[in-house]
Amino acid sequence: MPYASSGGVRIYYESEGEGPTILFHTGSAGDLRTWRLAGFAQGLPGFRKIWLDPRGRGKSDRPETIEAHRMERFVEDVRAVLDDAGVEQCGFWGYSSGVFVGLAFGTAYPTRLNALVGTGGLPFHNLSELPPTDLSELVRQLVAQGGIRCVLDHYRTTENESFPLEIDQNVRSDDPLMFALDRAGRRGWRGPLALYEAFEAPTLILAGEREDTEGETERAVARMPNASLCRIPGVGHLGVFSRSELSLPVALPFLERTLGRASAV
After folding, report:
1. Which CATH number fits the domain that encloses residue 96?
2. Nearby residues of 234 by Cβ (< 8 Å), 6 or more positions away
3. Number of domains in the chain
4. Which of 93, 117, 145, 160 could tie 150 with a disulfide, CB 3.0–4.6 Å?
5. pLDDT (tens digit, 0 to 9) for every residue of the chain, 265 residues total?
6. Per the domain annotation, does 198 fall within a domain?
7. 265, part of any domain
8. Residue 264 is assigned to a structural domain of this protein
């Protein structure tokens, strides 16, 4: 099975298709199977797709320290996977906080990122600006709350939205400790706001109509020199991912324009 080594942590990934490469990165929960369950594999002919299990999920290793879940670790995981797969340049498609990884990777390795697609709204602040907290206590609290399960229940209440059953089961099966470490590890990251203005890669943000109603995403995209925003009607933060039939028709022309496309067989 394909594993890349990233500072001693094994990162599992799968590759399929031929053509320009797109690497897919989930948010704070769920493994690489969520992309296929949502319809992205069959919806992107003419591209090589690389799906990875972020550290702490799926078949990747599960380091149990906050330090091992800092943003720079996730950036190096992407680099390690691309190196192992023999890919010098790629497009990057991230969902939710996976968009942060794309922004951080493109900032650290600008010559390796040709385009960024982000699914989900963007904040107009840096994670390092969140109120100070005891990170060990934060981890304890998030584990006690059930990790991502509490977040999914929150979206059901605030946006009246849930993932389809198979995706919901995949995401809910995540280890609450890994989710908590992910959240705690990124609290010191000086991004994403600090990265927007200098981020030059062509960028398309796909946000749900019913998420981020305060307009932070609009302000964030306006800061980026080569970015555009499409609000997907009728969905929130979960539906903008799971309803790929709504987002793919918008993203596909962008990817063909920025990356090219192999002839579909």
Report:
1. 3.40.50.1820
2. 209, 210, 246
3. 1
4. 145
5. 699 999 999 999 999 999 999 999 999 999 999 999 999 999 999 999 999 999 999 999 999 999 999 999 999 999 999 999 999 999 999 999 999 999 999 999 999 999 999 999 999 999 999 999 999 999 999 999 999 999 999 999 888 899 999 999 999 999 999 999 999 999 999 999 999 999 999 999 999 999 987 899 999 999 999 999 999 999 999 999 999 999 999 999 999 999 998 764 4
6. yes
7. no
8. no
